[in-house]
Amino acid sequence: MHPVVKGAIALTGISAVGYFIGPPREMATTNAAVSAARSAAPKLIEMPCDKRELPEGAACIPLVDPNSALEPDDPDAQLERRSRGDAIEIIPRRPDRPSDPLTLRFPLEPPRILHGFDDVMANTRSESPATIELGAERGDPVHALTLDGQQGKTRVVAMGRLVGNTIVTAHVLLDDGARPRTYLLVHGKLDGFGPDVKVGAELADGDVLGFVGDSGRPGVVSLYLEVRRVREETDLEKLDLPHLVDAAASVAVDARNVLPAAE
User: Fold this and answer.
1) Distance (Å, whole) CA 89 – CA 15
2) For residues 227 and 253, is the Cβ–Cβ distance under 8 A?
3) Could you tell me if residue 53 is inside a domain?
4) By residue range, what is the domain housing residue 23?
5) Which listed residue, 39, 191, 200, 245, has the most CB atoms within 10 A of its CB?
């Protein structure tokens, strides 16, 4: 037989033997490890939940639509939508209250309104739509106010850093002559506090609360002012400064509802 033919027959025989013997030890070990890993891998369980739901045990919990507004907690409040799409709870101006803010008295006299009231819906910043910004000179005194229908003196309930240097005062009013409700006045961006002002102090109308500055917004000297009504279940004594103005504790109010008339 020709030598070439003999060589071909020999190679064929060796291949056949290798086929029946099986792959090398290393290859067999690798294949076994892969098979074991596949069998040990956790199986995905498909839940019958929609895209806007999360599985919770055997139930599907719907996610909150970010574009939907919650119902207001305060019966006198309504939800205002800002241009950014946020829904903010606010008690609007009552029909019996003046629409012209210049007929009212502010912690700064004379008031120079830079922002607030009828332009609140054009505001694209992060503050409440009830925010008022009053122009002034650095160091101008900020005075305590006695609000329209207020019972007793103005009380300082919080001081510290919130909107720059901030003082929050509490005022008890008779809403529609029916029951007492507590309102808050938030005075922010102060350059400093009055010498006798401290938490718990009672102030008369006209007492100096602090002085105008630009704390919290350097370069823009003005007074930040906001009015909020405390929710009935809220205990002011248990809340720190940030939580006083949280929506869970108080709701923004159009300041024209409570500011006293100008003299």
Assistant:
1) 83
2) yes
3) no
4) 1-42
5) 245
